[in-house]
Structure formats: C-alpha cells, structure tokens
Design brief:
Shape: rod-shaped
CATH class of one domain: Mainly Alpha
CATH architecture of one domain: Alpha Horseshoe
Strand content: under 5%
Structural class: mainly alpha
Largest sheet: none
Number of helices: 23
CATH topology of one domain: Leucine-rich Repeat Variant
Order of helices and strands: HHHHHHHHHHHHHHHHHHHHHHH
Length: 389
C-alpha cells in the first residue's frame, strides 16, 4: 500500500511536470527545445528532490515518504531540507520518517527539528530521540532543556533519566535551575537514581532551592544515599528557614549515629530558635560519645526550665561521668526544685562518687521535698561503688 501511494504521487508529479513543461514550450515558441535526457528519471533521487518543491502538499508528502524508503545518506539530506517546509504536517511527517529510518545518521536531523517554530514538531522530535535510547542523543536532549515549552523540557528530562551514566549528570544538574518546580524535582530524582559520589554535590545544591517541596526532595534523596558525604551535605539545611526541613535533618543526623556531625548540632543549640533545641538535644543523645556529652554540658548554660531538664535527662541516659562536674555546678547554682530533682536523679544514675559531697550536703541543707530523692541517689552511687569492688 505504501509503495502504491508513492508511485501514485510520482505519476501525478510526472504528469503535472510534463504538462507544465508543454505549456511553457508553447508560450516560448522559437526557443531551443530542452533535450529529454536532462529531465530526472521517474522515481530517482533528483526526481523526489524536485517533488519536495512542488506546490501541492500531497506531492511533497509522497516525496518525503519515498526518500525515507530509500534511506541513503543523500536521501536523508533531502529530508533535512524538507524540515524547512512551510507546512507543519510535512515537517512532522519528516520527523516520523526519520524515526523509521533510525540509526545514528538521523540524529542531526532530529536535532534540527528541535529548533522548529511549531511546538508540536519539537515535541515529536524529543519523543523520537528519547525512544532511540542512544547516548548519542544526550547532547540533543540537552538542547531541548532550553525549550520555551514546559512539556518539552519535562520530556527531555524524562528521556535523560533513562540513562544511568555520568554523561547525563551535567544536563540534569542544569535542569535543577529550571523555572518549573516539577522539572527540578524530576531532575533531582533522576540524579539520585544515577547514584554515586558524583551526584551528591548537585543534589546538595537543591537544598538552597527557593521552593520547600524541592528542598524536601533533596533532603529525602540525600538520606536514601546513606553515604557520609551526603550526610555532611545535609548540615547546610540546619539553617533552613523552614521548621519541618530543619526538624527532618536534625532527626536524620541523630539517627545516623555519626559523631562527626556533633559540631553542627551543637551550633543549632546556640541558635535563637528554641523550637528545635530539644529535638537537637535528643539527636545528640542518640549519637552519644564524648563529643555529644561535651556539647550537652555546654548547653546547660541555657537557663530555660524545659530545656535544662531535657539536657539533664539525656546526660543521665548517656551515663558519662565527664558530665558530673557540670551537673554538680547546676545543682549548686539553680535552686528550682524541678531542676534539682532532675539533677539529683541523674547523678544517682551515673553513679560517680564525685557527686557524693554535694549530695551529702543536700541531706543537711536541701528542701524537705528533695530529701527522699537525694538519699536514693546516694544509695545508688554507693551500690555501684561496691559492685565495682
């Protein structure tokens, strides 16, 4: 059926060409007759090239299909010229035909179609390039990332996401600057799918995105990577203006158990935003170790009642004797019953004999409500001391 259509178109053009030539000959009588041998042979490349210039769309369409059927390098050049056709349908047909021809040789022509004034032609070209799934199309798809149409840029990112090598990291990173929020999120997820150390930096750059939704995706993808470098890049989000993001990052850093993030969490404890202070205290408690204890004892300088109790409780859970001097100091300086009660209990849990002098003094000078708790703490310390012996 396809060959019959081509032949029919060819015959129409041939008859039309012959008729026109006869008219011209009659009008210009006396001029030398053009030798018949100069006319292109029916169905030849030159014949189809001439057909591409015909005024009738159906003739030009037949020529496009015929050239695609031939598929040689010269035929492709003719199809390349047909991409300049004034009719959108012809140009779309050229893209379809090029796709059917396939192979690396059609990529330059499909790339040229990405510059078409009609968005439908450009969309079709991106789709055909994407279906090729050849690394040779990456540069062409990168060009489509600058298209004015959001749908075309989206299609280009989706096409690039089908590749997993380092070659697409640069164009996907460029897509993180797109004006469309959804495209930036798509690019982020595509980079994360590639994985490896090379994508950590571009994904981390999205932590500075103006849209919260994009920053949340960046946080989530960095956490999924489960790499020390990705974890450290998250520390920049501790200064994010959104509470939800800061909370997610603080909890994630605490759950990591990585002692190298302690200094960043300690910085949060000195920030003016009290909403994240207690969350950070718990994160430091989850990490533990000398660094976390040091950060928590320093945080005891904050005199807020709820905050101090939270810090004291976490220090008790950690059970590190290095916290005892600071706890003793708090016991001597802070007369609030809630603080003293919490501190005495924690000193008993830690069980360090360095706390005995201040506890013994409290049995004489402390308030009546505190006495049972003080005595219990002393007994715990003595018991632990005897167990060690």
């Amino acid at each position: 059926m396809f060959n019959k259509t081509i032949l029919l178109g060819a015959l129409i053009f041939f008859v039309s060409f012959s008729f026109g030539y006869g008219q011209e000959k009659g009008e210009e009588a006396g001029k030398p007759e053009v030798p018949k041998s100069t006319a292109p042979a029916l169905g030849s490349l030159e014949w189809h090239f001439n057909a591409l210039k015909d005024k009738r769309v159906e003739i030009r369409l037949s020529a496009v299909n015929a050239l695609g059927n031939i598929g040689t390098e010269e035929a492709l050049k003719g199809l390349g010229e047909a991409l300049k056709d004034t009719d959108t349908k012809v140009r779309k047909t050229v893209v379809e035909v090029l796709s059917k021809v396939g192979g690396e040789s059609v990529i330059p022509y499909l790339t040229e179609a990405l510059k078409d004034k009609d968005s439908g032609v450009r969309t079709l070209a991106v789709d055909k390039l994407a279906k090729m799934k050849s690394i040779s199309t990456i540069a062409s798809l990168t060009l489509a990332l600058k298209d004015e149409k959001t749908s075309i840029r989206t299609a280009a990112v989706q096409a690039l996401s089908n590749f997993t090598g380092d070659l697409v990291i640069a164009p996907l990173t460029e897509a993180l600057k797109d004006t469309d929020e959804d495209i930036r999120i798509l690019a982020l997820k595509s980079l994360a799918n590639i994985g490896g150390d090379a994508v950590i930096s571009p994904i981390s750059s999205a932590l500075q995105d103006p849209e919260k939704s994009v920053r949340l995706v960046a946080v989530a993808e960095l956490l999924k990577m489960n790499k020390p470098e990705a974890l450290h890049s998250l520390t920049s989000a501790l200064k994010d203006g959104d509470l939800e993001i800061r909370t997610k990052v603080i909890n994630a850093l605490g759950a990591s158990g990585d002692s190298t993030v302690v200094p960043y969490l300690a910085e949060v404890l000195s920030s003016p935003d009290a909403r994240v202070h207690i969350i950070t205290v718990n994160a430091l408690g989850a990490i533990g170790g000398t660094g976390a204890v040091g950060a928590l004892t320093q945080a005891l300088k904050n005199k807020d009642l709820e905050f101090r109790i939270a810090v004291i409780d976490v220090l008790g859970a950690l059970g590190d004797s290095s916290a005892v001097p600071e706890l003793v100091k708090i016991l001597n300086e802070d007369n609030r019953l809630e603080i003293r009660t919490a501190t005495v209990k924690v000193l008993g849990e830690i069980g360090d004999r360095a706390a005995l002098p201040v506890l013994n003094e409290l049995t004489q000078t402390g308030p009546k409500e505190l006495q049972p708790i003080v005595k219990e703490a002393i007994l715990k310390i003595v018991k632990k001391r005897s167990e060690k012996k």
